[in-house]
Amino acid sequence: MSAPIAILGAGAWGTALAIALARDDGPVRLWARRADHAGWLQQSRHNDAYLPGARLPDSVTVTNDLDQATNDASVLLVVTPAQHVAGLLQQLKRGDAPLLLCAKGIERGSGRLLTEVARELAPSRALAVLSGPTFADEVAAGKPTAVTIASDDDPLAASLVARIGSPSFRPYRSPDPIGVEVAGACKNVIAIACGLAIGAGLGENARAALLTRGLAETTRLGLALGGRPETFAGLAGLGDLALTATSPRSRNYALGLALGEGATLDELMRGRSSVVEGAATAGAALLRANRHSVELPIAQAVADIIEGRATIRDAMRGLLARPFKAEG
Ligand SMILES: NC(=O)c1ccc[n+]([C@@H]2O[C@H](COP(=O)([O-])OP(=O)(O)OC[C@H]3O[C@@H](n4cnc5c(N)ncnc54)[C@H](O)[C@@H]3O)[C@@H](O)[C@H]2O)c1
Ligand SMILES: O=P(O)(O)OC[C@H](O)CO
Questions:
Q1: Among the atoms of ligand 1, which is closest to the Cα of residue 13?
Q2: Superfamily of structural domain 178-320
Q3: DSSP string of 134-145?
Q4: pLDDT digits (tens, 9 = 90+) for 185-243
Q5: Which of 1, 12, 179, 223 is the most exposed place for a label (fewest CB within 10 A)?
Q6: Relative to the CA of 50, which ligand 1 atom is closest?
């Protein structure tokens, strides 16, 4: 029997990954932050709060005890929202099981990528990143899905692909964790912009333009941070952007759509438990881009709207007033 896999975070994505990775040959432990939630999940096998309709297989054990979840695990999947990854890593005991970072975002305040957070807070552990076009409910339902697993450590990436892959959950290996992280984080910001455009009635041409120029600015940032150009045409880049920036089932796109239709951010965020990563990442990406003198006009527009510095109309007008230039 293989060593256990620990999945840290019992929102929609952690739950879907637990279901996808549950096998007869190795147990899966799912860590939930709240004791009452862990107890309910373990007993009912359902996660109505975050992933209604899915059922946890018997080989998944749910706990809110981090030591119990991680003890003897072969790999720890980090699946909390990006802004809580540092808090989680600070609670982890020292150990040598690798981390597979599955959250998509850049840290607010510091502009750090999650691999940079992990390198500082869990220096003894090898790192890999999992990203790509993955609506959790489809993964939980066993629908065909392809992802990227990226690491500087190719044997680690290969062993994770072997442990995690199945006919319906197909990981592709990549040597570019930085590019994969930047792509996964920024697509959420671009998805908000695309939702805004449709919600505000600007049309599908505008959305296609935002998606394409969004990929161009994401690529600029990724390259400045050391990513590889081909990553942005891959699953974590174009693949995830195509999914997220066109589907009302994306929480990021849906937030933009509702804002564009006239809802306020306050109304949309009040009482909400599920995460909209792009809202925090817009400003964090800008912070990081400014340090590298990289321009992110679309992320700037999204951050200006989200952080209350511009109306949607003014931000969109600002984008349209930019000087004409060569494509690239
Ligand atoms: N849902 C998806 O389809 C999907 C797919 C791929 C990647 N992701 C990424 O996975 C990450 C998690 O998203 P999700 O959809 O599972 O979240 P979710 O919105 O379903 O659930 C939110 C989770 O955040 C947890 N949480 C709230 N406050 C916290 C805190 N202070 N510390 C630790 N955890 C806290 C909640 O307990 C809950 O587990 C995000 O970065 C998201 O972009 C999600
Ligand atoms: O619902 P979203 O916008 O958080 O997107 C979920 C996944 O990241 C899609 O790949």
A1: 16
A2: N-(1-d-carboxylethyl)-l-norvaline Dehydrogenase; domain 2 (1.10.1040.10)
A3: --HHHHHTT--E
A4: 999 999 999 999 999 999 999 999 999 999 999 999 999 999 999 999 999 999 999 99
A5: 1
A6: 20
